Amino acid sequence: MKHLLGIKDLPTSQIENILTTAREFKEVINRPIKKVPSLRDITIANVFFENSTRTRISFELAEKRLSADIVNFSASTSSVKKGETLLDTVNNILAMKVDMIVIRHSSVGAPHFLARHINASVVNAGDGTHEHPTQALLDAYSVWEKLGTIEGKKIALIGDILHSRVALSNIFVFQKLGAEVMVCGPPTLLPKHIEALGVKVTTKLHEALQWCDVANVLRIQLERQQIKYFPSLREYSLYYGINQAMLNQLDKEIVLMHPGPINRGVELSSDAADSPQAIILDQVENGVAVRMAVLYLLAEQR
Question: Hey, what CATH topology would domain 12-132+287-300 get?
Answer without folding.
Answer: Rossmann fold (3.40.50)
